[in-house]
Design goal:
53% helix; mainly alpha; globular
């Protein structure tokens, strides 16, 4: 069900709005959520404001490409 909820999130991303996955199960997480949580635990600069439950792989890619360019 989490993947179906991610379709909802991606639709709103397309519309330039950030929403949370309405079908998110608190006992599971997507890879992007896991990566975000690890980066936050490591206090990686710039990720403290990310919400792990609504961070997409595209958000992480954009963040790291921007970070690499600096």
């Amino acid at each position: 069900t989490g993947l179906i909820g991610m379709a909802w999130v991606m639709f709103w991303r397309w519309a330039k709005r950030k929403v949370k996955n309405p079908l998110h199960d608190s006992g599971t997480m997507f890879c992007s959520a896991a990566v975000t949580r690890v980066l936050q635990a490591a206090k990686y600069p710039g990720v403290e404001s990310f919400d792990p439950d609504s961070t997409s792989p595209e958000d992480l890619l954009e963040f790291f490409l921007k970070d690499e360019a600096q």
